[in-house]
Amino acid sequence: MKIIQRDIDKKKIKELVRDFPVTAILGPRQSGKTTMAKSFNADHYFDLENPRDMSRLENPQLALEGLKGLIVIDELQRMPELFPLMRYLVDTVSDQRYLILGSASRDLIRQGSETLAGRIAYFHLLGFRIHDIASEQINNLWLKGGLPPSFTAGTDRKSLQWREQYIAAFLERDIPQLGINISSRTLHRFWTMLAHYHGQILRYSELSRSFGISDMTARKYADILEGTFMIRMLQPWYTNVGKRIVKRPKIYLRDSGLFHSLMNIEDMNQLTAHPKLGASWEGFALDCVCRAVDKREEAFYFFSTHTGAELDLFWQDSGKNWGVEFKYGDAPRMTKSMRNVVDDLGLTRLWIIYPGDRAYELDPKVSVIPLAQITPHWKYDM
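Request: output the structure for the sequence above.
Response:
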C-alpha cells in the first residue's frame, strides 16, 4: 500500500519536538499516530501494547534515565504513572526528549498538563487533510473519511467493511480500556442517534427522552464520544446584538466516513440521494476549513438567532471577525441571512464554501470559494 505523505502535520510536530521536551500526539485510533512517530526515526521506541515493551518498563526509571535522544512511548494512556517520572527526567537528564502517543485526549491532557506544565505540547492528529491528497480525490475523502485504512481501501465496499469493524472494535475494546463501563450496544445506539443530529443544534432533553435516559447520562455519553475524537461540539457565539441567541451546541461527527457508516451510506450514489447530503457536506467542509485555519478547537463557534440569522462557522483573529457558510450547490447566492450576520457580527469577510470549481464575489465582504481552493495555511486576511 502506498504511504500518503502528511507533510503539514509532520512539519508541525517536528517544530513542537524541537521546542518542547515532551510532545503528545493525540487522536482517534488508526489515525496514523504510530506511522507518524516512526517517521521521526526515534532513538528509542516503546509500544505499551507490546508485552515485551511493557516488561521493559516494569522499572521505568531504570529503563528510561540512561537513554538519550528522542524517546517514543506509544499508547501512554496504559501507563499514566509515567507522567511524574517524565517530569523528573526532562528536568534532570540532558539530551532527552519524549514523543508520546495516545488515543484518549481528555484524560491525557489533564494528567499531562497538571504534571508537565510548561514542558509539554499537544498535537491532534486526525485523518487525512484535503491537502494530503490530489484534488480529484476530495469526494473520495468525503465518502470514506480520513482514517488512513478507510481512505486507502481499494473499493467503497472494503472501506465500509473496515469502518464497520473499526466502530465495533472502538466500542468493544477501546472504551472498556479507558475504564468506561458502558455496554457497546448501548453506546452504539447512542452514537447512531447522535448521527441523526449531525449538523443540528443539540437538545439534550430531546435526546435523552428519545433514548430513555436522563439528561445527565446523555451528556456523559456525549462527553465520552467527544473526548475520544468521535464527535465535535461546536459552541454558539454569544454577542450582544439585541436578539435572542441560540445558546445550545451544534453537533458533528468528526469523521465523515464514520458518519456515513452509521447512516448506512455505502457509496456516492447513495450519498447524493440521501436526505443528510447537505449536513454531511457541511460537516466535512467545516472540518477541512477548521484544520486549514489552524486555531485551537475552542476558538471556533457558530452563530444563530431565533429569528433565522445563521452562520455555520465563526472565529476571531487579529482583532477582526471572520465567518464561513457551507453550501452544497452549484452556484450559491447572496441571502438575507448572510447580510444580517455580516452586519450583526461585524464580519470583515464572509466566505461561502461550496464543491464547485469557480471562485466569485457576491458582495464587497462576501466571496464564494471552492473547497479545493482552501490552502493548507489559509490566509484569510484578503
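The chain has a mean pLDDT of 91.
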